[in-house]
């Protein structure tokens, strides 16, 4: 894409035990997963024994969603072009790749969003801000479920933008979970009130908000009451589609069809598709279901355990107010969560669809690459220690034309295809994988891999499981075929130009045996894998891989930054969400920094002299996680998730007052960052395309 210099674009944005997370985070976010035994007891190769893409739908469909990277010229983030080689954290500009020539910030532990010198920021939207026309302003002391249903939800995570019309974007956000302890006055965890529970139902889910870009620089402003603004929450209707829809194990007393589900839960990251829809991933759904301990059926129990569904009363006690959260009353309701959901944000009356062909696990994200023949491939991570990395290949091909027929065609892409799980092999001798990050004698943690077929349509490739069972209990299928146990596969993103796939492996304190793809024991800081499909064919069944980053403090000998000089690297810990900029750089946001500082956003070059030189761009307030990064030419956006989520914090005594300051309660929010100064570069081609691959002609 050629930069349209001088043409002012209005569409510029356009992805200790619990690390350092507080106990509260662990309790509310994932139901204390770390306190339980890892649910994967398959004994699969945990490897020691193997050795061996803001676009409009129209623009997207016309192929102008091009990866934007090439030839994009001098971008916002690259305007600082001095070439001194200063260390990160000194506040100095430094020699860096195009798009990364900002002065890296030092690690921060203050209750603010910290950004580099020469940049400004604002809060785009906060928990409780009105979205729908009739929604009231936020009033922390007088919250109601009805108000929350029209307001921006809690704990924003995934963030994505589509162009709606010139100067206007649709902003899509997930609301992963709620922190009742710091949301509600006088919260009693033993006795939540019905209204508190219903507010939490409404604060979960998803938001679509139209936003208007300012004419020059600056951020974006929500358009309250826009006709396409929507809230999806725990009582919104969703449709189950694909091969497991209508199966007996997804039927409930309220839905004997097994096709209509109320709600989406624990939506973590996701992706935008080249055909103009939004994918959102249901992650730690297990924690909302009560009384697993009372289930006696052995097979049912095994399935529940494999998904971490355990205990008696659930933490939020929703089962007191709706039987579907009680496994003794509605044993199948839990099977209706843990899916990838597809939403058409351009149709304000569309029903979101839970796509069962993509399998059921603790989905982190779903990101799309289109093969040369037009078939679409979705890469999928399962966010749990020792769990697996998957992909889905459609049978149908994407229709790049406009109109109803194309829409109907593309609506089926994620219902009919083949689901695979990854098995990795290292190419270095087992004895050379010491567990402390020391490179093996070939100077790389690398090797090959195999995509193992699990199911295709109605056909199962897993002994002892029907295809429907494979989709419903995908983790068990992965166990049976010998998939490789990974260190928490979170976001996975195919590079829009090279097609290389980047997989964030956040951490795994429980790893005792190092293997080449997960080469550190007690992996507290996580790593990033680079996966390259053989013959550059995403529909194929084999791949190569190497470890791009072993995260941590660069002074720690166990770290590795693609061979870069560690003096030039910012400390980074617990990679979680990924995206790309218009120059093809990778951006990483973190969840659980173990290095004594807060989570942040980092940019790193993937190619050239600066490959591996991680540079910190932003840091978030007390208790917060950095999520949903979206990096465009003129603006960078992040979701600041769970500010103030620390042990001992309460509504009455919060540990963070971000963003409103004073004595206010913390409010999860979307933040925009832009560059200031005379040398501001505006008028570039929009590059939401950065995160979406160009379609084949
Ligand atoms: Fe919700 Fe995998 O982080
Ligand atoms: Ca090797
Ligand atoms: Ca995440
Ligand atoms: Ca995370």
Structural notes for this entry:
The protein has 697 residues and is mostly beta strands. The protein is built from 9 helices and 32 strands. Strands 13, 14, 16, 17, 18, 19, 21, 22, 23, 24 and 25 form an 11-stranded antiparallel sheet that branches. It binds MU-OXO-diiron (FEO) and calcium ion (3 copies). One calcium ion is lined by residues 426-428, 440, 442, 444-446, 516.
Give the rounded overall mean pLDDT: 88
In angstroms, what is the radius of gyration? Answer: 23 Å
Uncertain segments: 1-17, 46-54, 61-87, 678-697
Main sheet summary: 11 strands, antiparallel
Task: Give the helix tally.
Answer: 9
Q: What is the helix fraction of residues, given as a range?
A: under 10%
Q: Which small molecules are bound?
A: MU-OXO-diiron, calcium ion
Beta-strand content: 25-35%
Distance between the termini: 15 Å
Give the overall shape.
globular
Number of DSSP strands?
32
Structural class: mainly beta
């Amino acid at each position: 894409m050629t930069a349209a210099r001088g043409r002012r674009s209005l569409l510029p944005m356009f992805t200790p035990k619990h690390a350092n997370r507080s106990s509260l985070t662990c309790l509310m976010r994932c139901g204390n997963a770390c306190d339980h035994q890892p649910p994967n007891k398959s004994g699969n190769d945990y490897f020691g024994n193997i050795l061996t893409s803001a676009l409009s739908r129209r623009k997207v469909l016309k192929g102008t969603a091009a990866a934007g990277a090439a030839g994009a010229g001098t971008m916002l983030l690259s305007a600082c072009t001095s070439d001194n080689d200063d260390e990160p954290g000194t506040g100095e500009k430094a020699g860096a790749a195009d798009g990364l020539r900002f002065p890296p910030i030092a690690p921060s532990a203050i209750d603010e969003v910290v950004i580099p010198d020469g940049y400004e920021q604002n809060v785009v939207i906060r928990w409780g801000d009105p979205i729908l026309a009739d929604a009231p302003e936020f009033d922390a002391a007088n919250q109601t479920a009805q108000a929350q249903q029209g307001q921006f939800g809690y704990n924003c995570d995934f963030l994505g933008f589509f162009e709606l019309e010139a100067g206007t974007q649709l902003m899509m956000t997930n609301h992963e979970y709620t922190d009742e302890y710091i949301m509600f006055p006088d919260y009693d965890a033993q006795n939540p009130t019905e209204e508190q529970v219903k507010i939490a139902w409404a604060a979960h889910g998803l938001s679509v908000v139209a936003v208007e870009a300012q004419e020059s620089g600056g951020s974006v402003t929500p358009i309250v009451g826009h006709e396409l603004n929507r809230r999806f929450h725990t009582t919104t209707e969703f449709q189950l589609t694909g091969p497991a829809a209508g199966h007996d194990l997804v039927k409930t007393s309220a839905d004997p069809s097994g096709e209509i589900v109320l709600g989406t839960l624990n939506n973590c990251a996701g992706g935008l598709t080249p055909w103009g829809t939004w994918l959102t991933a249901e992650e730690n759904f297990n924690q909302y279901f009560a009384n697993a301990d009372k289930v006696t059926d052995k097979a049912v129990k095994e399935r529940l355990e494999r998904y971490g569904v355990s205990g008696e009363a659930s933490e939020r006690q929703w089962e007191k107010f709706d039987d579907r959260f009680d496994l003794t009353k509605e044993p199948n309701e839990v099977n209706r969560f843990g899916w990838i959901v597809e939403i058409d944000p351009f149709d304000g009356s569309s029903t979101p669809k839970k796509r069962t062909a993509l399998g059921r696990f603790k989905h982190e994200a779903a990101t799309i690459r289109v093969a040369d023949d037009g078939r679409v491939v979705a890469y999928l991570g399962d966010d749990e220690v020792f769990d697996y990395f998957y992909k889905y290949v459609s049978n149908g091909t994407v229709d790049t034309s406009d109109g109803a027929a194309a829409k109907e065609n593309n609506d089926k892409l994620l219902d009919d295809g083949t689901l695979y799980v990854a098995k990795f092999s290292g190419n270095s001798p087992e004895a050379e994988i010491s567990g402390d990050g020391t490179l093996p004698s070939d100077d790389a943690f690398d090797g090959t891999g195999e995509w193992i077929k699990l199911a295709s349509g109605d056909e199962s490739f897993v002994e002892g499981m029907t295809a429907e069972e494979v989709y419903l209990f995908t983790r068990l299928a992965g166990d049976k075929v010998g998939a490789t146990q990974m260190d928490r596969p979170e976001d996975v993103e195919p590079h829009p130009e090279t097609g290389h796939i980047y997989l964030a492996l956040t951490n795994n304190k429980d790893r005792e045996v190092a293997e080449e793809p997960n080469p550190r024991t007690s992996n507290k800081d996580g790593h990033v894998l680079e996966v390259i499909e053989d013959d550059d064919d995403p529909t194929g069944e084999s791949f190569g891989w190497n470890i791009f980053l072993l995260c941590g403090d660069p002074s720690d000998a166990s770290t590795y930054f693609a061979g870069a000089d560690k003096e030039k690297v910012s400390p980074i810990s617990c990679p979680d969400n990924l995206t790309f900029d218009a120059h093809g750089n990778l951006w990483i946001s973190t969840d659980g920094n173990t290095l004594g500082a807060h989570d942040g956003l980092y940019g790193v070059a993937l190619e050239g002299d600066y490959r591996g030189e991680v540079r910190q761009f932003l840091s978030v307030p007390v208790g917060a996680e950095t999520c949903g990064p979206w990096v465009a030419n003129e603006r960078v956006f992040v979701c600041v998730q769970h500010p103030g989520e620390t042990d001992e914090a309460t509504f009455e005594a919060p540990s963070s007052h971000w963003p409103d300051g004073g004595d206010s309660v913390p409010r999860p929010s979307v933040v925009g960052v832009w560059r200031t100064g005379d040398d501001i570069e505006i008028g570039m081609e929009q590059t939401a395309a950065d995160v979406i691959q160009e379609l084949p002609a």
